[in-house]
Amino acid sequence: MKLPLFASILLCVATAAQAQHGHVAPSPYAGQESRAIKGLSPDDVAELRRGGGWGLAKAAELNGMPGPVHLLELKREIALSAAQVSAIEAIVERMRADAIAEGERLIARERALEEAFQARAISEQSLRRMLDDIGASRSALRFIHLAAHLKVSALLSSEQVARYNALRGYGAGPCAAVPPGHDPALWRKHNGCG
Questions:
Q1: What's the rounded Cα separation, in Å, for the pair 13 and 15?
Q2: How far is CA 132 from its chain centroid?
Q3: What's the DSSP call for residue 172?
Q4: Separation between Cα atoms, residue 178 and residue 101, nearest integer Å
Q5: SS3 category, 25
Q6: I want to staple 65 with a disulfide (CB 3.0 to 4.6 A). Which of 60, 151, 167, 169 is the partner?
Q7: pLDDT tens for residues 122-177?
Q8: ∠ Cα 25 31 36 (to 5°)
């Protein structure tokens, strides 16, 4: 019984000593308190507003089901036919319109959560309801992007899929090459590249 008490006292003394000497690390959230919506970065908001993938379709992309936008970027290298390009463009147009609409709903729901916390006008019941709504938007966004991967995959030959995967750097590891259209620094950060 005395050992846990001694350990607790020792931990408190060590923590106080660290604080006194400035060794307490700042929160990784430091600087984010000025965000308009704390749960979304300005980059997140921009990505949602443009209907971008926001990394939601990795389950398809990294399991050999190409993304429609990237297919269009690589259409020459993959030798897509005119009919395939036309069909993929229609899928992208629908996906982007749906993703923008749902992204705006998500932004509004995150903003409502932010405002409720700022006003201290939130209860556990209203918090649950707000989080359920936010979760529904995130799920809908993920469905929109993953479903587009399903639709375009049905239009491709196995050779085109293999070529896409090779061009995107899959199989050689995500750090081997940054795919066209991706910010190199963000790509390396999100994929744990050194």
A1: 5
A2: 18
A3: S
A4: 29
A5: coil
A6: 60
A7: 999 999 999 999 999 999 999 999 999 999 999 999 999 999 999 999 986 666 66
A8: 145
Task: Let me know: does 37 contact 107? Beta carbons within 8 Å.
Answer: yes
Q: Which two tokens stand for residue 172?
A: 């050689």
Alpha-carbon distance of 70 to 5, in angstroms, equals 59
- Cα distance between residue 122 and residue 26, in whole Å: 27
Structure tokens at 84: 């395939």
| Band of pLDDT at residue 4, cut at 50, 70 and 90 | low
Record the tokens describing residue 174, joined without a space: 């995500």
Q: What is the pLDDT of residues 58-97, one digit of tens each?
A: 999 999 999 999 999 999 999 999 999 999 999 999 999 9
Residue matched to tokens 């408190």:
12
With beta carbons less than 8 A apart as the criterion, state whether 158 and 139 touch.
no
Residue type, 140: A
CA distance 129 to 133: 6
